[in-house]
Write a structure and sequence with these properties.
Elements: H1 8-22, H2 29-36, H3 50-62, H4 74-90, H5 107-123, H6 127-153, H7 161-167, H8 173-177, H9 179-183, H10 188-205
Length: 208
Protein backbone atom coordinates (compact mmCIF):
# COMPACT_ATOMS: atom_id res chain seq x y z
CA UNK A 1 0.00 0.00 0.00
CA UNK A 2 1.34 3.37 -1.00
CA UNK A 3 1.71 5.88 1.82
CA UNK A 4 -0.66 8.86 1.36
CA UNK A 5 0.71 12.38 1.04
CA UNK A 6 -0.28 13.45 4.52
CA UNK A 7 1.46 14.44 7.74
CA UNK A 8 0.52 13.79 11.35
CA UNK A 9 -0.14 17.52 11.69
CA UNK A 10 -2.67 17.37 8.83
CA UNK A 11 -4.40 14.38 10.43
CA UNK A 12 -4.67 16.11 13.80
CA UNK A 13 -5.94 19.37 12.30
CA UNK A 14 -8.59 17.38 10.44
CA UNK A 15 -9.50 15.56 13.65
CA UNK A 16 -9.83 18.91 15.44
CA UNK A 17 -12.26 20.11 12.76
CA UNK A 18 -14.32 16.94 13.07
CA UNK A 19 -14.41 17.27 16.86
CA UNK A 20 -15.64 20.85 16.59
CA UNK A 21 -18.29 20.00 14.00
CA UNK A 22 -19.50 16.60 15.21
CA UNK A 23 -18.50 16.39 18.86
CA UNK A 24 -16.72 13.56 20.63
CA UNK A 25 -19.20 10.91 19.50
CA UNK A 26 -18.62 11.91 15.89
CA UNK A 27 -14.84 11.73 16.10
CA UNK A 28 -14.15 8.52 14.20
CA UNK A 29 -11.36 7.38 11.94
CA UNK A 30 -13.81 7.30 9.06
CA UNK A 31 -14.94 10.88 9.72
CA UNK A 32 -11.37 12.16 9.90
CA UNK A 33 -10.50 10.31 6.71
CA UNK A 34 -13.53 11.83 4.99
CA UNK A 35 -12.38 15.28 6.11
CA UNK A 36 -9.02 14.59 4.46
CA UNK A 37 -10.62 12.91 1.42
CA UNK A 38 -8.76 9.67 1.92
CA UNK A 39 -9.74 6.16 2.95
CA UNK A 40 -9.76 5.37 6.68
CA UNK A 41 -6.89 2.82 6.47
CA UNK A 42 -4.61 5.65 5.26
CA UNK A 43 -4.71 7.15 8.76
CA UNK A 44 -3.00 4.13 10.28
CA UNK A 45 0.29 5.33 8.81
CA UNK A 46 0.11 8.11 11.43
CA UNK A 47 -1.92 6.76 14.38
CA UNK A 48 -2.27 3.16 15.47
CA UNK A 49 -5.88 3.33 16.64
CA UNK A 50 -8.82 5.57 17.51
CA UNK A 51 -7.48 5.77 21.07
CA UNK A 52 -4.07 6.83 19.78
CA UNK A 53 -5.76 9.50 17.68
CA UNK A 54 -7.54 10.88 20.75
CA UNK A 55 -4.32 10.98 22.78
CA UNK A 56 -2.45 12.70 19.97
CA UNK A 57 -5.28 15.18 19.42
CA UNK A 58 -5.48 15.99 23.13
CA UNK A 59 -1.75 16.63 23.22
CA UNK A 60 -1.96 18.66 20.00
CA UNK A 61 -4.69 20.91 21.41
CA UNK A 62 -2.98 21.27 24.78
CA UNK A 63 0.10 22.74 23.09
CA UNK A 64 -1.56 26.17 22.99
CA UNK A 65 -1.97 26.35 26.78
CA UNK A 66 0.72 28.51 28.38
CA UNK A 67 0.49 28.90 32.15
CA UNK A 68 1.07 32.34 33.64
CA UNK A 69 3.19 31.76 36.77
CA UNK A 70 4.32 34.91 38.53
CA UNK A 71 5.84 33.49 41.71
CA UNK A 72 4.47 36.10 44.11
CA UNK A 73 1.94 33.80 45.81
CA UNK A 74 1.69 30.08 45.06
CA UNK A 75 -2.04 30.12 45.86
CA UNK A 76 -2.68 32.79 43.25
CA UNK A 77 -0.54 30.89 40.76
CA UNK A 78 -2.65 27.75 41.30
CA UNK A 79 -5.89 29.73 40.93
CA UNK A 80 -4.65 31.39 37.77
CA UNK A 81 -3.45 28.14 36.19
CA UNK A 82 -6.68 26.33 37.04
CA UNK A 83 -8.74 29.13 35.51
CA UNK A 84 -6.54 29.17 32.41
CA UNK A 85 -6.91 25.42 31.98
CA UNK A 86 -10.68 25.58 32.45
CA UNK A 87 -10.95 28.31 29.80
CA UNK A 88 -8.71 26.32 27.47
CA UNK A 89 -10.75 23.13 27.83
CA UNK A 90 -13.96 25.07 27.20
CA UNK A 91 -12.53 26.76 24.12
CA UNK A 92 -13.23 23.69 21.95
CA UNK A 93 -16.18 21.36 21.79
CA UNK A 94 -15.81 18.20 23.91
CA UNK A 95 -12.11 18.91 24.43
CA UNK A 96 -12.09 17.53 27.98
CA UNK A 97 -13.51 14.18 26.87
CA UNK A 98 -10.32 13.50 24.92
CA UNK A 99 -8.26 13.25 28.12
CA UNK A 100 -6.42 9.91 28.08
CA UNK A 101 -7.02 7.60 31.03
CA UNK A 102 -4.07 6.77 33.21
CA UNK A 103 -0.55 8.14 32.94
CA UNK A 104 0.87 9.12 29.60
CA UNK A 105 3.85 11.16 28.46
CA UNK A 106 3.38 14.00 26.00
CA UNK A 107 5.63 16.99 25.43
CA UNK A 108 2.98 19.65 26.05
CA UNK A 109 1.26 17.92 28.96
CA UNK A 110 4.51 17.06 30.70
CA UNK A 111 5.78 20.62 30.36
CA UNK A 112 2.58 21.90 31.95
CA UNK A 113 2.76 19.25 34.68
CA UNK A 114 6.33 20.27 35.42
CA UNK A 115 5.23 23.88 35.93
CA UNK A 116 2.41 22.96 38.31
CA UNK A 117 4.63 20.60 40.32
CA UNK A 118 7.26 23.32 40.56
CA UNK A 119 4.71 25.66 42.13
CA UNK A 120 3.44 23.03 44.58
CA UNK A 121 6.91 21.83 45.61
CA UNK A 122 8.07 25.43 45.87
CA UNK A 123 5.18 26.11 48.25
CA UNK A 124 6.58 23.44 50.59
CA UNK A 125 4.47 20.37 49.87
CA UNK A 126 6.17 17.01 50.18
CA UNK A 127 6.65 15.21 46.84
CA UNK A 128 3.83 12.71 47.35
CA UNK A 129 1.45 15.43 48.56
CA UNK A 130 2.40 17.59 45.58
CA UNK A 131 1.59 14.71 43.22
CA UNK A 132 -1.76 14.08 44.91
CA UNK A 133 -2.54 17.80 44.82
CA UNK A 134 -1.69 17.88 41.13
CA UNK A 135 -3.99 14.98 40.24
CA UNK A 136 -6.80 16.17 42.53
CA UNK A 137 -6.69 19.68 41.12
CA UNK A 138 -6.44 18.49 37.54
CA UNK A 139 -9.40 16.13 37.94
CA UNK A 140 -11.45 18.92 39.52
CA UNK A 141 -10.81 21.28 36.62
CA UNK A 142 -11.31 18.57 34.00
CA UNK A 143 -14.55 17.22 35.50
CA UNK A 144 -15.90 20.72 36.06
CA UNK A 145 -15.14 21.73 32.48
CA UNK A 146 -16.85 18.67 31.02
CA UNK A 147 -19.90 19.27 33.20
CA UNK A 148 -20.00 22.98 32.42
CA UNK A 149 -19.88 22.25 28.69
CA UNK A 150 -22.66 19.66 29.02
CA UNK A 151 -24.91 22.09 30.92
CA UNK A 152 -24.34 24.74 28.27
CA UNK A 153 -25.63 22.33 25.60
CA UNK A 154 -28.89 21.55 27.39
CA UNK A 155 -32.15 23.15 26.42
CA UNK A 156 -35.34 23.68 28.37
CA UNK A 157 -35.98 24.63 32.02
CA UNK A 158 -33.48 23.63 34.68
CA UNK A 159 -36.26 22.15 36.85
CA UNK A 160 -39.13 20.20 35.31
CA UNK A 161 -42.75 20.47 36.42
CA UNK A 162 -42.51 16.98 37.93
CA UNK A 163 -39.46 18.03 39.94
CA UNK A 164 -41.28 21.14 41.17
CA UNK A 165 -44.22 19.04 42.31
CA UNK A 166 -41.89 16.68 44.20
CA UNK A 167 -40.13 19.56 45.91
CA UNK A 168 -43.45 21.17 46.85
CA UNK A 169 -44.52 17.97 48.62
CA UNK A 170 -42.69 19.01 51.76
CA UNK A 171 -40.51 15.89 51.84
CA UNK A 172 -37.25 17.82 51.66
CA UNK A 173 -37.38 20.73 54.12
CA UNK A 174 -33.61 21.26 54.32
CA UNK A 175 -33.32 21.47 50.57
CA UNK A 176 -36.31 23.80 50.36
CA UNK A 177 -34.71 26.14 52.91
CA UNK A 178 -31.90 26.61 50.36
CA UNK A 179 -34.08 26.58 47.27
CA UNK A 180 -33.19 30.11 46.27
CA UNK A 181 -29.51 29.16 46.11
CA UNK A 182 -30.35 26.23 43.82
CA UNK A 183 -32.76 28.06 41.52
CA UNK A 184 -30.52 31.12 41.28
CA UNK A 185 -27.05 29.68 41.88
CA UNK A 186 -25.18 32.80 40.85
CA UNK A 187 -22.24 33.17 38.56
CA UNK A 188 -20.68 29.93 37.30
CA UNK A 189 -17.21 31.45 37.74
CA UNK A 190 -18.04 32.03 41.40
CA UNK A 191 -19.06 28.39 41.82
CA UNK A 192 -15.87 27.16 40.15
CA UNK A 193 -13.72 29.41 42.33
CA UNK A 194 -15.48 28.22 45.49
CA UNK A 195 -14.45 24.62 44.85
CA UNK A 196 -10.98 25.66 43.77
CA UNK A 197 -10.46 27.71 46.93
CA UNK A 198 -11.52 24.73 49.04
CA UNK A 199 -8.88 22.60 47.33
CA UNK A 200 -6.17 25.23 47.77
CA UNK A 201 -7.04 25.59 51.46
CA UNK A 202 -6.67 21.83 51.81
CA UNK A 203 -3.31 21.87 50.02
CA UNK A 204 -2.09 24.64 52.30
CA UNK A 205 -2.78 22.53 55.39
CA UNK A 206 -0.32 19.95 54.09
CA UNK A 207 2.61 22.37 54.21
CA UNK A 208 4.77 21.74 57.31
Amino acid sequence: MRRPQLTLEMVLEAAARVLEAEGYEGLTMRAVAAELRVQAPALYWYVDSKEALEVALYEHLMADLAFDVRGDDWREDIRRMAQQMRAHLLSRRDFGRLRPSGFFVGTSSMAQTEIVLGVLLGAGLKPRDAFYALTTGFNYVLTWSIGEADVAKRRGPAISEADKALLASGAYPHFMSLMEAFTEPGDVDEQFLFGLNCLIAGFERLIP
